[in-house]
Structure of DgyrCDS14064:
Amino acid sequence: MTDNRTVDEIISDFKCHDKGLILPLVNEYTWPLGARIFLYFFGLFWSFLGVSIIADRFMGAIEMITSKTTKIRIPDENGEKKEIDVPVWNNTVANLTLMALGSSAPEILLACIEICGNNFEAGDLGPGTIVGSGAFNLLCIIAVCVVSIPEGEVRRIASVKVFAITAFSSIFAYVWLIIILKASSPNVVELWEAIITFLFFPMLVLIAYSVDKQCFGRCSRTQPDMTTEKTIGFSE
């Protein structure tokens, strides 16, 4: 049976004939299936390796920046001045900005690259990757942190109010996505929605920092027992 279709019509039968940022390089639909599987797995592994190297260096740089300290002089019990090291970055601000950016950089970059190359329309990977990463952090990472505590030791939240704010914001982010994507403008993110969503982040950092500095009343902090207990902050 003779196929009278043109080459373009035959190529259109293959879903991956012209999609992708890098692969496929050419229309390899006529290549053996094994060769194509090897090519795509190699490209996937190469991409993951590159992302892991960049993310590792990026996180190392962020940790070096946020761990920077400076010396200040304070009076001791005898009235003499002594020098102590204090962190330059506030722990709350560092966790919510640079540390969160570093750990979420791969999925954020993936979403930005995809949406810019897709005529500013949501693709199959970007939004799903960000939401999946957030859900994984919220559920799986917290579960692992709880289970991994050594027997006989205790972990306590250093600032309950700051933790409550970040926990509320984590849940509110999903609720806000439902509002703007299902109720306000179904399947479309309008400009005003994008601006408000972006402004939520500096608002969260400002409120969390203010609470951490006890601007709205004394913040409840635990006093750890140095033998068996340790205090922890909060994750993103």
About this structure: Confidence is low (pLDDT under 50) at residues 219-236.
